[in-house]
Amino acid sequence: MIPINRRDFLRGAGGALLSLPWFESLGKLAPAKLPKSRLAYFYVPIGVVRRSFFPGEAKAMVPKGNQGDKMASLFVPSIKPGIHNLDLTPTMKPLEPVKDKITLLTGLDRPFQHGTDVHAQCASCFLSSAAPYSVETSAYPLDRTLDHIIADNIASETPFRTLEFSCNSHKDNKESIFFDNMSWYGTGHVAPSIRDPRKMYNRLFGAQEIQNFRNITDLVLEDAHTLNRNLGYNDQQKFAEYFDSIRTIEEQIDKLDRMKGELDKTPMPQPTGAYLPRGEYIRLMGDLMVVALQTGLTRVATFMVGPERWDTPFTYDSLFDKPMSHHYMSHNQTEHVEDLERLDRFHMEQYFYLVQKMDRIVESDGTTLLDNTLFTYGSGLGDGSTHQYHDLPIIVAGSGRGTFRTGHHYHSPEATPLANLWLTQARAMGLKMDRFADSSGTLS
Q1: Contact between 419 and 400 (Cβ < 8 Å)
Q2: pLDDT at 4 (0 to 100)
Q3: I want to staple 124 with a disulfide (CB 3.0 to 4.6 A). Which of 178, 273, 284, 340 is the partner?
Q4: pLDDT averaged over the chain?
Q5: How far is CA 345 from CA 49, 89, 262, 287, 314, in A?
Q6: What does the alpha-carbon distance between residue 168 and residue 43 come to, in Å, rounded to a whole number?
Q7: What is the average pLDDT across 374-390?
Q8: What is the pLDDT of residues 36-77, one digit of tens each?
Q9: Count of alpha carbons within 13 Å of 200, Cβ hemisphere only?
Q10: Distance of CA 279 to CAs 191, 338, 341, 438, Å?
C-alpha cells in the first residue's frame, strides 16, 4: 500500500472525493507531521443582551427602543483591566464543559465611521478593523479582511484558501451585501459565502452533479473498506465515526431539502427559510466546517450565524411558537428582553456544539482539533438597541497550539482596538506582522 497523509482522499465514480482525517496506522507508513494551526470565526449578528453576557453587568439597564448610537453612559463595566477568573454568566453557561479551553475577552472596541449605517459596518468590518476614513473608496472602514491576509501566507498546502459559511437561508434580499458578508478580498470585493448546505457539501467533496449518482459515501465505499482493513483497531473505530459523520451530514441535507420542498408547496406569509429549524441548519453547516478543518481542506473559515438588520424572521427551535425577527426584538428589549436572552443562549449552544465537536477530534500528536484552533465567537455590536461598538462580546475557544492561555477572562484597558486581537491571532498563525489595521499592539 502506498503512503497516505491527511491531505489524501478516497475517490469514487462521478468525481466524488472523501477527504481523510489523520490515522495513526497510516502514519506508520508515512510519518505524520504535527497538526497545523487553524483559524475560524463564529459571527453572531446584532450584539447580545449585556446583562446576561458580560460579567459584572447583571443589574445593567434594559434599553428602551432604538437608542441610536448612545454608548458609554449606558453601560459602565465594573471589571478592572487585567486577567480575572472566568465566571460564566447565564448566556455563557452552555460552555461549562469546555470552560478550561475558552477565553473571554471584553473591553475591545471596533472602529466606526460616523455618518454611515451602523449595522452595515458590523459584520462587513468585523475582520477588517480599518481606521475610520482611511479607505477613501468606501463609505465604511472596510479593507481586506484578516482571514484572507492570513490565508495569503498559509494556504499553499490546502485545497481551499478559505471557506465562507452563512446560515442566512433567505433569498428576499432585504439588505445589501454589507449586511450579510464578513469576508472580503478587499474594499468592494466580497468573498461570497455559501448558504446552502448541499452546495457547500458538493464544493468540499468535489461531487459535480451528485444528484445523478449515489451519495458520496456510497461512491467511495469500496475503497473505504479496502483502506479500513489496513487500519489498527483504534483507527478503525475513528474511521467508522468519521464515515458515519459524513453519512449523517448527507442524511441531514436530504432531510432539510425534503422539508424545504414541502414548505415551497404551501402558501406561507414569510419566505420558506423562515420556517426551517435554525438549530438543525446551523449545526449542519457547522458540521461541514468542522470536517473541512479536520481533514485539512482549509485552515481558515468564517461562519455567519445570521445577517445584520434583516427583519425577515427565523424559526428558532423550541424557543418561540412562530418565526421571530432578531433585529425587531433587539429594538424592543423592554418587551422582549427575556426572549432575546433565550436567543443569545441558543446561539451560544450552537457555538458550544461545534467547540465540543472539535474537542473530541484527536489529532496526530494526541491533541485535539480544538487545541490546534483559534475559534472566535463575536459580534460587531455590544448591544443591538444602543448600537454600541465598544466593549464587544468576544470569546476565543482553543489555544492555537498553545499560543493562547485559556480558561480565564481578560478585560482590556479602555479604548483597546479589536484589531489588537486580530494582530495577536495573526502572529499565532505564524505571520510576522507589526501592525494590523488600527491595532496599537498585541494582547498580553
Answers
A1: no
A2: 42
A3: 178
A4: 86
A5: 10, 10, 30, 20, 16
A6: 12
A7: 92
A8: 999 999 999 999 999 999 998 888 778 876 666 555 455 566
A9: 28
A10: 25, 19, 16, 36
Length of the chain measured in residues: 444
Read off the C-alpha cell for 327. 433585529
Determine contact, residues 115/142, Cβ cutoff 8 Å.
no
Pairing verdict, β 184-186 and 189-190: antiparallel
Return the H-helix or E-strand segment holding 153. Answer: helix 146-154
Shortest CA distance to 161 belongs to which of 146, 175, 151, 147? 151
How many other CB atoms are there within 10 angstroms of residue 408's CB atom?
15
Provide the CB-side half-sphere exposure for 129 (13 A, CA).
23
Phi and psi, residue 368, nearest 5°: -105, 165
- Residue 41 neighbours by CB distance under 10 Å: 23
pLDDT for residue 36:
92
Using CA atoms, how far apart are residues 331 and 334, in angstroms rounded to an integer?
9
DSSP 8-state secondary structure symbol assigned to residue 288: H
Q: What crossing angle do the helices spanning 233-264 and 278-294 adopt, rounded to 10°?
A: 140
Query: What pLDDT score was predicted for residue 152?
Result: 95
Q: What is the pLDDT of residue 77?
A: 64
pLDDT tens digits, 219-253 = 555 556 666 666 666 777 777 777 778 888 888 88
C-alpha–C-alpha distance, residues 284 and 277, integer Å: 11
Q: Confidence class of residue 295 from pLDDT cuts 50, 70 and 90? A: confident
pLDDT of 371? 98
**DSSP codes, 72-101:** TTT----PPSEEEE-PPPGGGGGGGGGGGG
Domain boundaries, the chain: 9-428
Residue 432 is placed in which grid cell?
510576522
In angstroms, the CA 290 to CA 359 distance is 11
Alpha helices (runs of H) in 6-66, residue ranges in sequence order = 24-27, 50-53
Burial track 267-295 (b if 16+ CB lie within 10 A, e otherwise)? eeebbbbbbbbbbebbbbbbbbbbbbbbb
Question: What percentage of the chain reaches a pLDDT higher than 90?
Answer: 55
**Cα first-last separation, the chain:** 48
Half-sphere exposure of 163 (CA within 13 A, CB side): 29
Give the phi and the psi of residue 20 in degrees, each rounded to 5.
Answer: -110, 140
Q: Which residue, among 330, 310, 380, 326, has the nearest Cα to 67 in the 3D structure?
A: 330
Give the strand pairing for 408-417 and 102-109.
parallel
Q: Which residue has the cell 424572521?
A: 313
Q: Which of 63-77, 313-327, 332-346 shows the lowest mean pLDDT across its residues?
A: 63-77
